[in-house]
Amino acid sequence: MGTFIPWTDQICIGIQEIDEQHKQLVELINRLYDAMTQGADRQQAATEILQELMQYTIVHFAVEESLFRIFDYPDYETHRERHQQLRDQVIDINKRVQAGERLITPELLFFLRKWITSHIMVEDKAYGPFLLAKGIEKNWRRTSWLGRIWPGARR
């Protein structure tokens, strides 16, 4: 697998479950990069990975937003709006790709890389200390819960 987005400890927010979900998002974008740069049927493989990325992103955002409500995160609305913007963009891109448009391009990959790294390193890093101070455990993991929400979730 390529390292279009290398995972580093700088990207971690300090909550194991969320960090693992972020790693999965990074892995999906790296797989999308690999699909676009290797193999004979690049567009078909990339389309399938984009679909998986869209589904996983929606589930991940739901997990984060649930935690924000549970722990009464003060920037919940602003963070939710940022999630909604990306959700809308990814859903629109996916619909257009499913309709036959060739939108899986290097520009899309660079957009996704910039968005995920800046979102995690700025906005998500802001809630990590808040949730930890509110009592969430660093090693909080809800593998079975994530599996119930999205049975295809990988670890």
Automatic annotation (TrEMBL):
Residues 14-131 form the Hemerythrin-like domain. The keyword Repeat does not apply. GO terms for molecular function: metal ion binding; oxygen carrier activity. Keywords: Iron, Metal-binding, Oxygen transport, Transport. InterPro entries: Haemerythrin_Fe_BS, Hemerythrin, Hemerythrin-like, Hemerythrin-like_sf, Hemerythrin_metal-bd. Belongs to the hemerythrin family. This is Hemerythrin-like metal-binding domain protein. It comes from Desulfuromonas thiophila.
